Structure formats: structure tokens, C-alpha cells
Model the fold of this input.
Amino acid sequence: MTVASTAPPRLSVMVRLAAGRGVFRLASQLMAVALAVVWGAESFGRFANAMGLCAWLLFLPTAAEKAALKVLPRTRVLTAQVARLVIRLAAAPVLALVAAFAVALAVSPQGTVTLYLVTAAWSAATGLLMTISGLHRLRDKPMLDAGAFGAMTAVVLGATAVTWVAGWSPTTHLSLLLAGLLAVTGYSVSALPRDWVLGTGTDRRLLPALGRTTWLLGLSELLDVAALSTVYLVLALTGRTTDSGPLYLAVLVASMVGSLALYQFKLYQPATSSRLRGAGGAGGRARTFRLLHTAERAGLAFTAVVAVLVAFPGTRAFLTAESYVVLGTILAVEVAVSTLVIYANFLLENTNSSVLTITSVSAVVGLAATAVIALAVVPWLGAAGGLTALVLAAAVKAGTLRRLLLRRHPELHP
Done:
């Protein structure tokens, strides 16, 4: 029987793992820059809008990974059954989206619906590969994670080079990426222990409990990315789709930092889950409370600065100029505030299961705040307004979660 490892990888292994994910993210950034040159503003805007709207689908499969990283270190007898359920929960949305894309491809190869479905399938399948890689780390085979994303780096660079030369459309380019991704994912699944992939047993009895944990653990990240997708939706609805390109390029930087941070958290999650179990959860909640307070104050300070800039015509024009200096400055604030909130959420989720309801509520509030703020500022600030909405919504989420946590644990009152 294969059991899950709770020890974090050695430093040398962590460096190689981070390098594997890092070069994949870097290749994705290079791909975006190259495609912006090849396709021009209109086609790249369609591609960027599709990628932005479908980015949240990555977190449907990775919710199962978070559940595995929390639950498997706390169990010994049911390891194989839990692993099988995790794989099935992660694979279900991918299979559904791939099937829908295949139908759309046969009906309208270059249609808009086909573009969005292949983008959705690519996003969800990337999340599935991350989940399978997380299971490999749990069975103490972390280099299969690095190898999988090293292979995907080659796929991304190869497909981009072909599109650069042949001038392929966004749909054709993404179809090639999806084919390579499914091949790499299939190999990764085949490398898992046989009893983690095949077999029957107590799966049905485990499904309600694991399904609830997976849903609540994944909801926060899912809604955070859905919040970003609402910004792209507002851009599309207000006729500013071409602004999706600058926003997408800016968010690529933030997503690279955020993804590497999340990856580091996941590398330590089995050990953190064990450390914060039971009595250890008190320290985790106290640290979470302090981090949320810092993020909330940073968001309030940013709000004050933006209000001052908007109040004066000269600085207001600077904000609306869509310069990369403005985008870069707001982006730096967004990365800092969001990282604080993500880390605080990570600590809280690994204390006990009862807190998952309040992390989910705060995520819903964050999504609603993003939509409302984006509707107010995106139509006249464009990409800069989109980033501003993300900063302010992160601060709202931090404040909501801090207050809900204090209500449940009044001993945290300073």
C-alpha cells in the first residue's frame, strides 16, 4: 500500500520543482508577447479575453489537489480510496469540456464558441495536470511534477514557434496546446500507483465528505479567479475588448508571482496540515488575523491614494492614459495585497474544517465587490481600472474574513 508523505521536499528538490513551474510560466508569458505581435490587437484581444474569462476553470480540478494535500497526510488506511476519488473529481470537468470542444470543432472550427471551449478545456486540463503532479509529490516522487511541466514548457514554446511561422488562428494554436497537454497528463496518470487510479472499495462512502471538503477548499481560489474574469467580462460588455490585451499582459506577471506563491504553499501543505491540526490551530488563526489586518490597511491606503488622484484633473488624466508605468504600479500593489490574503487564507484553511464556511463566504463577498467596483471604474479607466478593482476587492475580502474569524474566535481580539 502506498502512503502519503508529510515531509516537505528537500531544498534542492524544491528549487528544481520551482524551476519546472517557473519555466512553464515564463514560456506562457513569452507566448503571450509573441502572439500579440503575430495576431495584432484585435485577434490578440479575443484570445486574451477568452483566456481571462476561462482562467477560473483551472481551479475546478485543483480544488481536489488542495483536498488531497490536506486530507491524505491525516489518513493511512484510506489513502488509495481518497486518491482515486481525487483523480475522478479532478478529471470530470476536463472530460466534459474536451467533449464539448470536440462537438463545437466539428460544427464550427473557427467559431467564437469553439475558441472559448478550447480555452476552457486548456485551462481545466492544466489544473488536472497540477492535481496529478500534487499526488506524485505526496507519494514522494516530486521530480515527476518538474518533468511534467518541463515537457509542457516545450509544448508551449513549440506551438508558439509554429504559430509564429504559419500564422495559425487562436483556436488552432490552443487546439495544439490542448493536444500536447492531454498527452503529458495521460503519461502522468499512468505513472501513479495502480491502486491510486483503478479499483473500487469505499469510494461511495467517502464521496460526500471529500466532496464537501473539495468544494469548500477550492471555492476561495475559484472565486478569486472568477473575480478576475468579471473584469474581462465588463471590458467585453462595455466595448473595451482591446483593453483586454494590456490587462492580460499585466496580469500574467501577477499570476506568475501568485502561482509560484501558491505552489510553495502546496509544497508545505502536508506538513502544515499536520502542524495546525488540533491545538496547533490556535497559532495559525492568530497569525491569519494579523495578516488580514495588514492587507485591509494596505487596501484602505491604496483607496485613499486613488481617491486623491481622481480628484484632480491632471492626475486623473495620468490614470486614464493606460500607460505601463501606471499599470505596473497598481500591479505591484495588487500582488502584495493579494499575496497576503492568499497566505492568510492558506493558514486558516489548514486549521480545521469548520472555518471553511467563513473562507467561502469571504470569497463570495470578494467576487461581488470585484464586480461592483469593476462596473464603476473599468468603463473609464480600462485596464488600470480592472487592476484597481482587484486591489480594492482583495481588501474587502480581507476585512470580511477578519471580522468573520473574530466573530467565531473572540479570543483573537487585540
